[in-house]
UniProtKB/TrEMBL annotation:
It comes from the Archaea. This is Uncharacterized protein. InterPro entries: UCP024484 (IPR012357), UPF0216 (IPR002746). Pfam families: DUF61 (PF01886).
Length: 141
């Protein structure tokens, strides 16, 4: 029994440490699509490092997002990985309704008033394969 508690404590400690480390590598700032279209593609991470958004990825998003989204929707977008009690993985879109709507446009080609707040694993895989510099992933602490 003692061994089990020690192992569980170790795993929980490692999980919290990993979550803290990942949190340092998420964006401290975001830019609007309009700002990105004008060349502002450098953003600062919480670690203090600079991340550069890929211009081709930004251009691809600009081509599918309606022009009135450009001053409202912000990138990069943070996705939080969660595992449900039943063991199903999901990715929750962090941010406001405009970011959720932008994700829905990218995934489905259209959007709803509330946007897409949660991604399946297959939707997530397609997004990060296509837009590696636009999406950041973290885990719940």
């Amino acid at each position: 029994m003692k061994q089990g508690k020690a192992t569980r404590r170790y795993i929980e400690t490692r999980y919290r440490e990993t979550a803290k480390r990942l949190a340092q590598n998420i964006p401290r700032e975001t830019v609007t699509l309009y700002e990105a279209s004008r060349g502002r593609v450098r953003i600062t991470l919480y670690s203090g490092e600079t991340h550069i958004l890929d211009r081709a990825e930004v251009q691809s998003i600009l081509e599918i997002a309606p022009p009135y989204f450009w001053k409202l929707a912000r990138i990069p977008i943070v996705l939080r990985y969660e595992k449900t009690a039943s063991g199903v993985a999901r990715y929750v879109v962090q941010g406001d309704s405009w970011q959720k709507r932008l994700v829905e446009i990218i995934v489905r080609g259209d959007y709803s008033p509330e946007g897409l707040g949660e991604l399946t694993v297959s939707q997530f895989q397609k997004l990060v394969a296509r837009y590696r510099s636009i999406f950041f992933v973290t885990i719940s602490p």
